């Protein structure tokens, strides 16, 4: 009787321990960030039930993932960036807890990844797939697989020599963020028309593409709220472009004048004009003054030694960033007095 009781108590302890371990699994982004990071595949496979984050980036000795990767059933974050893995095993499809997957520059410099295993489409918790720097990837086939992921929200595609997006991108209906920077030959009109089929797309990155203008098809992206246009050469802005935008980054665009048509962005709350040293701020202030929703203005590294005398157009700002400018103490005091309700960063 006593032995039976001991066995029952031992079994109960095992069950309670399993439940406790399960309860400790990260359930939020913040909890996941605080979870330990394993940096050795051998170590991770030695205690698979405790692994939530596995970071193998820059492991130049790693050329393949073994089938045993499937043992990491609690894995939520996997980073394979800059490893020499040229293909992924079908067993990846058994990582059913996976939320974030980075394949950036996978296989480089020998041979970058060409295809995803179809089993990736079974990862129904996957939210982010990083495909930066994979110019040999079959994107049509890849997007067919990604379209099966109900939780996919974030898709970085920078530096892929893209000229257009395949028709299959229309199937990514839950996508909220797509990053298409460093693809200077990208056909924007065609791209915007396809992205218009994504009803939840709120963030679009086009940094480093050296575009000089944006086509009217941008206006088809009705849900768009945030655009990153750093490192382009934009000289014009269509008044009807993405009227619901709340955040816009014009950093490093070699701007000399702010397009007057920007005043059509009636909901714009945050604007970055950083690293535009030739910007005529005297001409820009009246434009900024007509952006009635504007609260945050970034003028970092604009080679400013003083701001225009009339600062009235800036008085509704909550935050003004002037870091990286050689403003003398006297000018700083003037700005602090004139913009008393604005938080200024020097």
Order of helices and strands: HHEHEEEEHEEHEEEEHEEHE
Count of helical regions: 7
The chain-level mean pLDDT equals 91
Strand order of the largest sheet: 6-7-8-9-10-11-12-13-14
Write down the Rg. 25 Å
- State the helical fraction: 10-25%
Q: How much strand content do the residues show?
A: 5-15%
What gross morphology would you assign? elongated
Descriptive key words:
346 residues, alpha/beta, nine-stranded parallel β-sheet, five-stranded parallel β-sheet, 7 helices, 14 strands, elongated, disordered N terminus
Q: What this model shows, in words?
A:
The protein is built from seven helices and 14 strands. With 346 residues, it is of the alpha/beta class. It has a nine-stranded parallel beta sheet with strand order 6-7-8-9-10-11-12-13-14, with no helix packed on it. A five-stranded parallel beta sheet has the order 1-2-3-4-5. The chain is elongated. 33% of the residues are buried.
What's this model, at a glance?
With 346 residues, the protein is α/β, with parallel strands linked by helices. Helices cover 20% and strands 12% of the residues.
Could you outline the blueprint of secondary structure elements for this entry?
Elements: H1 2-23, H2 29-34, E1 37-38, H3 41-46, E2 53-55, E3 77-79, E4 100-102, E5 128-130, H4 139-146, E6 154-156, E7 177-179, H5 188-195, E8 203-205, E9 226-228, E10 247-249, E11 270-272, H6 281-289, E12 296-298, E13 319-321, H7 329-338, E14 343-345
Parallel strand pairs: 1-2, 2-3, 3-4, 4-5, 6-7, 7-8, 8-9, 9-10, 10-11, 11-12, 12-13, 13-14
